[in-house]
Amino acid sequence: MKNFAASVVGSLDKGWLFRAYLIGALCFCWVMGMRVMAAQDPNFVPSSDTPSVGFFFRFSLISTILFPFAKIVWNVVRDFILGDTVLISNAAALFLGKFIVNLALWTMAIFIAPIGIGYLWYSQRALTRDKASIQSGEGL
Questions:
Q1: Residue 84's pLDDT band (boundaries 50, 70, 90)?
Q2: H or E, element range at 66
Q3: Is residue 120 within 8 Å of residue 72, measured between CB atoms?
Q4: Looking at the whole model, is its pTM more than 0.90?
Q5: The pLDDT of residue 134
Q6: 48: helix, coil or strand?
Q7: Contact assessment for residue 105 and residue 67, using Cβ atoms and an 8 Å cutoff
């Protein structure tokens, strides 16, 4: 299991991974802040199906940890669809779009991240196998 985690996380660029975790932490703070403010509002009347702050904390923590792997899936899909196309847009629309995409990825990270982890594991496994076959002379 340790080897699996090391190969998956080790295949990512450290700067990109830091930036993805920073974005995830910002989403965590924003969502938790909104939930705590809602709970402190005197007009807020929780119904029986309103999730507790503890549930939001656990959900937010898991989403923050898995966010970079969900972002991998988005990057692969985006690159497949757009290719080398350059889109020209104003900065406000670009940042609004990035905010919406990142928040959606963070929210659905629990469901999307396993695909990203599997993709990284498979690509690392294939890369390792190719290196081994080249070193043994079978790839020539």
A1: confident
A2: helix 53-82
A3: yes
A4: no
A5: 65
A6: coil
A7: yes
